[in-house]
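Q: Sequence in, structure out?
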Amino acid sequence: MSSKDYRRITTNTLSEMKISGEKIAMLTAYDFTLAGIIDKAGIDVILVGDSASNVMAGHETTLPITLEQIIYHASSVIRAVKRALVVVDLPFGTYQSDSKEALRSAIKIMKESGAHAVKLEGGSQVVESIERILQAGIPVMGHLGLTPQSIYKFGTYNVRAKEKKEANELIKDAKKLEEIGCFAIVLEKIPATLASEISRSIKIPVIGIGAGKNVDGQVLVLHDFLGMTQKFNPRFLRRYLNLSEKIDHAVKEYTKDVKNSSFPNSDEQY
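A: Exactly. Output:
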């Protein structure tokens, strides 16, 4: 399906894209420079993900990132973006136990970063939080399947919903998120056939990561996509660059040039 030339992507745009059969392209970003590059290149949605905890701060999980830190990253991204829809993750601990706290967290993100929407993980257990956020007029993207903020509960990053009981619960949760007003859902690391079934059974867009191609769009972590990270090698990841290798080469060349006094040359000085 050919892409329509949208000047600005909104939640309504994503609905139109699903109806027309146009796939939705989504990447993470955490800083002004890279967000500006991918926005100019035509990405539809930018997720300021709690994956910043991993790729920006070096933590093992997404759990340590704070609300203030995600707002810092989101503010940097927003200042660069002209076209894409910017969605920001609610960090672990800011919405799970108290719907009023969830609303306060979402409002803080929207007011202080200028974001366009928030995303949070979970189904039936977070419905009250989602409803309260939606009542305040804040768009919400859901996230089902493998939910990294619950990694210590799962104990593994293996594929979710392979068994019929969990698959049925996931389908039920997806329909519930649509019913209460989420504008889209991310499905992470679930069987492709199940993801396809869910995408067909609900009217809101379904964005996959490790969920096969028969959904409404795809999302990847930018640092994985660019090959800046090397140790993370799930089956669903396609690296479009090997930037780690290119940066390594550039730094070695620069170091060599500095040490042998070939940088700067006569044209590179005042």
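The domain at 11-241 is CATH 3.20.20.60 (TIM Barrel).
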